[in-house]
């Protein structure tokens, strides 16, 4: 009986990890797919080559993350979050183009640096981007996605705002629970993972949403280094 229990727990762990890996790889995979489609449509292969290559590298990095036994240490560097957002522009634009979404980028505080793990912050943004473009139904016509960076209350703030279908109270109540999804092919890992990554940075992650109006994700990152488990010092 004990062996069976152990086996059950192991299988459960394996399936959770597998779902996590699959979820994380789906983002770069869909970017690569989109860029290959664009490359074919526009016949401009050179233009998309770099992004495809960098997404492949990202997939590689994600796999390494999952494979590394100790994922505890968060390797952070002083960087401008606005610049990280800027470096994602081409990917976001392409994704928005494919989903017929108008994209607005309002970057302020471009010189302000924060201790971040760049690839994890990118992972968060691409997860949010994916959720936003998936939040538009057929009836949504004026689709607008806005990403904004600013400083408020001595915190670095990143906001992602979409005018998609929003979330009813019943969804909002469950939001953040691992594996909670309303999508036929969803995994329910995106939001919990984003929350964990931002909280590992000493920041906060909040979602405001109104059904049939839209969704706003507010991320804050501390301006001062807060010492804790994940301190790079
Ligand atoms: P998944 O995308 O795999 O379903 P997530 O953890 O990323 O998992 O999201 C959980 C659920 O939260 C989604 O299934 C969806 O119902 C809701 N959700 C997340 N982001 C948005 C958004 N921008 N607009 C509307 N609903 C959202
Ligand atoms: Mg998601």
Please outline what is shown here:
This protein is α+β, with helices and mostly antiparallel strands. It contains seven helices and seven strands; from the N terminus they run ααβααββαββααββ. It binds adenosine-5'-diphosphate and magnesium ion (MG).
What does this structure look like?
The protein is α+β, with helices and mostly antiparallel strands and 233 residues long. Helices cover 49% and strands 19% of the residues. The protein contains 7 helices and 7 strands. The chain has a 5-stranded mixed beta sheet with strand order 2-4-5-7-6. The protein has a two-stranded antiparallel ribbon with strand order 1-3. β4 and β5 form a beta hairpin. The longest helix has 41 residues. The structure holds adenosine-5'-diphosphate and magnesium ion. The site of magnesium ion has 4 residues, from α5. Its EC number is 2.7.13.3. It is an enzyme of class 2 (transferase). Keywords: ATP-binding, Kinase, Nucleotide-binding, Phosphoprotein, Transferase, Two-component regulatory system. This is histidine kinase. It catalyses: ATP + protein L-histidine = ADP + protein N-phospho-L-histidine.
